[in-house]
Amino acid sequence: MPEPPDSEAVRSVLAEGGDDPGPLRLAPIPGGASREVYLVEGDTDRWVLRRDPPGAQSFAPLELEHRLLGVAADARVPVPRPLRFEPQGGAFGSPGFLMEHIAGDSLAPRLLRREEYAAARQRLGTQLATALAGIHSIDPGTVSGLEVPHGEAGLAACELWEAELDRIGEPLPAVEAGLRWLRLNPPPRSARRALVHGDFRLGNFIVDADGLAAVIDWELAHGGDPVEDIGWLMIRAWRFGNDDLPVAGVGTLESFLEAYEEAGGSRPNPQSLRWWEAMANVKWAVICARQARDHLDGVRPSHELASLGRRICEPEWDLLQVIGAG
Amino acid sequence: MQDSPSAPELLDAVAAYLFGELRESVPREERFRVLVAANLCTVVARELRAGVEPSIEDLRLFRHLSGAEEPGSSPERAPAEARRAAAELAGLIREGALDSRLEETMAALAEHVRRKLEIARPGYAE
Q1: What residues in B contact A317, CB-CB < 8 Å?
Q2: Which of A71, A100, A129 is the last residue of a domain?
Q3: What's the CATH number where A60 sits?
Q4: Are A317 and A196 contained in the same domain?
Q5: Which of A16, A29, A289, B109 is most buried (most C-beta within 10 Å)?
Q6: Residue A114 contacts B, CB cutoff 8 Å
Q7: For A29, which residue in chain B has the nearest alpha carbon?
Q8: Is A191 a member of any domain?
Q9: Interchain pair B37, A178: CB under 8 A
Q10: Which residues in chain B show pLDDT less than 70?
Q11: pLDDT grade, residue A326 (50/70/90)?
């Protein structure tokens, strides 16, 4: 386990922002792949600290994430309220920020199976639709530092994942065929540019007994076609066995889209949705291959990451099914 | 030659231990990782039981789709050759060389993906 940030330095940041929280305890929260996440506990209050691993060089993204949480909160999307960002060499050592602690659970199997979340499951589909419509109401041009691809968002996605496949070096002809089909059958041109969360799926939602409490993990946010988020949300990987409920394993697509429209989102054209669902399967297949490669290269040795190399075939299969070639 | 149990039988034994005894005794937050390890043992056991046959079929398929000659190689080289043939096919698809028969290519590749799933996640393609 890495050395946690200095608790007195964290305390002084909180004290500057308001009341001195007293002595703090910092405990790592496991699960963050590329960031360190700590639970910060005082005698009466809790916060979460998210920072880059010391020595990592990604100054802008965490600062951007901090900014995005603020923008999302202003758009009334449920998120942890962001507190102070500190740059490299600041109070947290490496770049990082403090945020409000949101009580609840994010682990998919628990959310989908436990009795205590039965009521939450009933509401979650609609709440996710409302939150996503809120995210998509944000003009990406207003978020400084946010990556907004030039030209067609779909073409940019093809180029992005082709380049990543080349870096990984794993031969995946089914994924290549899917990508080729996506290039040859582009979705209808979309003039819409929205803030895209980029990883809007079960696992990145904090849920309590009342349903959605917060949307977390904004590190893949970018500007683009909002339908991308819906396609990613519905792939089979995030249904965790509830295969007939495409919306996070809790809801149907139709009721999700109705709620999304009701909350101000614009209903995606079916062809466009199918395109982005296929692309989402490409993306998950490539991410599985990337994680397995990170294990093999010693970047992050882990049998969990290694095991994803044997899961590439799942999104490959779904990709071919969505395209209609299975 | 090794004595009994066979390699897949040994993995079955390890998987049974991980799924059963060990999973019950580790802290809650470690259980998922134990489950992943147990599941990997069952995948590799199936992979060993299937032998080189799936690689031979994939090699034949990839070469056919690439318009290359049928393989005449030895079975033990099939896995390595199948990877090479997969890379070649992937390259041809990327260049657009198979655009005129992309739908057939995808339908044929579904058979390759199905073979991988039979090892890695039986039942997924049903």
Answers
A1: 110, 113-114, 117, 124-125
A2: A100
A3: 3.30.200.20
A4: yes
A5: B109
A6: no
A7: B29
A8: yes
A9: no
A10: 71-72
A11: low
